[in-house]
Amino acid sequence: MAYVQVPKDLTRVKTKVMFNLTKRQLICFGLAGVIGVPFYLLTKGALGTTISACLMVVLVLPFFFFAMYEKDGRPLEKILMNIWRAKVQRPGIRVYKTDNFYAAIQQEIYDKEVLGIGEGQASGKARSEAGNKKSVKKRAADGR
After folding, report:
1. Which run of H or of E encompasses 134?
2. How many CB atoms lie within 10 A of CB 40?
3. Contact, 55 vs 42, CB < 8 A?
4. How many domains does the chain have?
5. What's the pLDDT tens digit per position in 80-113?
6. Residue 56: CB partners within 8 Å, gap ≥ 6?
């Protein structure tokens, strides 16, 4: 009796179109052939066959990578796009910043009770003075 393996994860199974290749692979290999063969034929007379063949391989190699390389179910262009986004579009260290609303409420309470400043009266200068212990002690000594 014939034994056929059935994959457990059917989402990874790709439909083969022709020559046991997917549509993506056929398109990439076709583009590689359309670019590589004429390049070789036009340059072998001027550069020689060895150099022309090496340059053709270098020229066609990206097409093969785009056709065949896949990591974690993602093709090469998606991987390269994610690298582009991480390194170029949004580079560097992203600093974690929050708005500390609790500290703002504490500052308002402190301004009202200790400094005697009402809402809307507190300026940036008054708030910076609030952190200074000497000015707080001085105001407390004055009886405010």
Report:
1. helix 133-142
2. 18
3. no
4. 2
5. 999 999 888 887 777 777 778 888 888 888 888 8
6. 36, 39, 40, 43
Q: Work out the widest C-alpha separation in the chain, in whole angstroms.
A: 102
**Both structure tokens of 9:** 């994860």
pTM: 0.50
AA identity, residue 15: T
**Domain span holding position 18:** 14-77
| Positions of E strands within the chain | 70-71, 74-75
In-domain check, residue 128:
yes
Burial tier of 56 (Cβ tally within 10 Å: 0-12, 13-18, 19+): buried
First to last CA, the chain: 99
65: in domain: yes
Cβ 77 vs Cβ 69: under 8 Å: no
